[in-house]
Amino acid sequence: MQSTLNWFEIFVSDMDRAQAFYERILSIKLKPESFMGEPHAIFPSEGLAGALVKRANRQPSADGVLIYLNCERRLDAVIEMTPQAGGRVLMPKTDIGEPGFIAIIGDTEGNVVGVHSSRSGAA
């Protein structure tokens, strides 16, 4: 069955700060792009794709949609690195059964984002 999700956008106020935050906590490299004159930083992906986006008519918010990012690194490392990178841990590592573990973090822009790790990736 084909996924109904195909793209996500995390709105930011300060692209450099936000890009540095996500690259640091997830140990990834985002790809800077510009679409229709708006700065984007694309997350690496082989499936569902998304980006940090700086858009004049959209503001970061803790009250928006909640997305979960996959942690290639162990979830514990992401949780530990979040405050060091300027974010906040809003919900600690939580066991969700067979799917693994999640945590909720606040980024440097005021967004709330979930992070997920499978049981094998969280050990």
Descriptive notes:
With 123 residues, this protein is of the alpha/beta class. The protein has one domain (7-122): 2,3-Dihydroxybiphenyl 1,2-Dioxygenase, domain 1, CATH 3.10.180. Helix content is 21%, strand content 35%. The chain is built from three helices and eight strands. The protein has helices spanning 15-26, 75-84, 119-122; strands spanning 7-11, 31-35, 38-42, 49-53, 68-70, 88-95, 101-106, 112-117. Helix 1 runs antiparallel to helix 2 (75-84). The model has no long low-confidence stretch (mean pLDDT 90).
Layout of strands and helices, then pairs:
Layout: E1 7-11, H1 15-26, E2 31-35, E3 38-42, E4 49-53, E5 68-70, H2 75-84, E6 88-95, E7 101-106, E8 112-117, H3 119-122
Parallel strand pairs: 1-4, 5-8
Antiparallel strand pairs: 2-3, 3-4, 6-7, 7-8
In short:
The protein is α/β, with parallel strands linked by helices. The chain has one domain (7-122): Roll (2,3-Dihydroxybiphenyl 1,2-Dioxygenase, domain 1).
